[in-house]
Amino acid sequence: MKSETVTPTGEFTLRLSATRRGARLARLLAVQQLRDWGVTGAPADSTALVVAELANNAVQHGRVPGRDFEVRMERGDDHVRVELSDARGERRPVPAREPDEGGYGLLLVAALASAWGVKDRSVGKTVWATVPTSVRRP
Predict the structure, then answer these.
(1) Is 82 within 8 Å of 69 (Cβ atoms)?
(2) Which of 134, 118, 47, 39 is nearest to 84 (CA)?
(3) Vertex 26, ends 4 and 94: CA angle to 5°?
(4) What pLDDT, in 10s, does the model give residues 21-75?
(5) What whole-number distance in Å separates Cα of residue 95 and Cα of residue 21?
(6) What pLDDT does residue 51 have?
């Protein structure tokens, strides 16, 4: 089974272990995919930060032992849609009203994305965000 899929239609899907290392790898591979799509500068930085925050949340709050999480990105003409899926559907993300030692991740996602939300899956949930971007086409 191939764990990474890149298609000419502008989709990228990756399954990784629900560990800190998996979250870090999700961000690194997302950055490479953005480069391959021609997304650079501030839009790429914003998208990479959204991937990093959502992957970290999937590992910290959505982890089920023995289950992976999935990263999906789809390139549009003026945006990148980022989706992170994990196996814990009962743990819905809620931005912290008054963050203490942490809890700023979803506030960052909300600030960088034009929209974000959560949708149910048959097993778990998917947290998605739409990040505005400029795409240079070859």
Answers:
(1) no
(2) 118
(3) 125
(4) 999 999 999 999 999 999 999 999 999 999 999 999 999 888 888 789 999 999 9
(5) 24
(6) 97
